[in-house]
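Folded chain entry
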Amino acid sequence: MHQEEKILFSLLKREIAATMMRSYPGIDPEISNWKGQNITDFQEELRTKVNGQLSEKWFYTHMKSENSSLPRIDVLNMLSQYAGYFNWQDFRHKMAGTMPMEGKQAKPVSILIKIALLFIMVIVLLFIIIKLINTQNYHFTFIDSDTGEPVPDANLRVELLMEGSEYPKRILPDEKGSVMVRTNKNRISMIVRAPYYLTDTVERTLRKFKHTEQVSLNADYYALMISFFSRSDVTSWEKRRKQLDGIFSEDAIIYQFPEKNAGEAMALFNKWEFIDKITMPSSGLRQIEILDCRYLDGKISVLRFRIKPDKE
């Protein structure tokens, strides 16, 4: 590989890293440090944005180490397109200011081209540094708006709405029920779901010097009522049937999921089948654990639950 080609390919890798940082702000700016999930994310970026595909072995050979020869021209074209250029020749032309004729040896890099390349490298480096400075970690803890107690982390589901992305990003809580968001944005949106709490879309303006915040979740009183009815002795079943009738829509669909590792099939109820079973002590619908409630016009339209075993 000629020295000019080596420099140009190195610059292309820097621009690829800068492009990746737009989708993954926390990724390492040095491609040579990428591994595991970083490489998988890069492969997915190529597939979705330029309909390209590279193996992990190829990545280690050409991107993480210095190779004695350039990759194939079709691969260079694909990588150049991902970085925002028409093809490899377009990238070379804009970086070096010349496009060598086919079959002729490229001219040595002139002093002006070297200065231009150095200037571009400095700009890219400054861009990366600014991104790193602005990218910070923010911690969110979710609490019950009535009691102020933390929401159990095992039941918490948080999805980060990514700007420019069609699908939200799932964030797993830690053992204390907190989630960590790493971003350089000044505003984020999250969808928060938890059994016995109303699903909420939380929007927060981020402050650079405040990295910890509590978010209150409102209890789902209908879900709590159903769970209470399933655990208590029925003394006024007619009254409870009327109460249950009032909280379910007529077309409600109720799913009973099997116990964990039970291997049973899922059961499906309509509104009155479920009301009949929950108000009959012999039905077996005791110790209901609500998994999810969906509402339509203020009434439950979809309910998902399972029977909580005595010991879990």
Remarks:
- The CA atoms of residues 14 and 117 lie 12 Å apart.
